[in-house]
Amino acid sequence: MPTVKISTNSELAQRKKNWIDFDAGRLLEGQSMDKLTDELWNRLLDLASGDVRTNNETNGFREIAIFKDGVIL
């Protein structure tokens, strides 16, 4: 089952747009919590129903290592 990736800041979401499925960092840029909550909930429902695919599925990524030891470039 694919993993839904949510970024905590928009800079990360922009840099990793092929990985990140939802940019929660928009809260810090002035969007309301209610709007983002509704948007995330609807996105999750679309993913769960199969109407939308995660970015990993769309881009053919099978694995991702967000937390790994060593140097990360």
Tell me what the structure shows.
- The chain has 73 residues and is mainly alpha-helical.
- The protein is 38% helix and 5% strand.
- The protein contains 3 helices and 2 strands; from the N terminus they run βαβαα.
- It has a two-stranded parallel ribbon.
- Helix 1 links the parallel strand 1 and strand 2.
- It is flat.
- The mean pLDDT is 87.
Placed side by side, the strands forming the largest sheet appear as 1-2
Q: Distance between termini? A: 27 Å
Helix content: 25-40%
Order of helices and strands: EHEHH
Count of the separate structural domains: 1
Question: Which spans of ≥5 residues are poorly predicted at pLDDT below 50?
Answer: none
Q: Which class best fits the helix and strand makeup?
A: mainly alpha
Mean pLDDT: 87
Q: What would the principal axes of the Cα set say about the shape?
A: flat
What is the radius of gyration computed over CA atoms, rounded to a whole number of angstroms?
13 Å
Task: Output the number of helix runs.
Answer: 3
Q: Strand share of the residues?
A: 5-15%
Number of strands: 2
Please outline the major beta sheet.
2 strands, parallel
What topology emerges from the helices and strands here?
Blueprint: E1 6-7, H1 10-15, E2 22-23, H2 33-49, H3 55-59
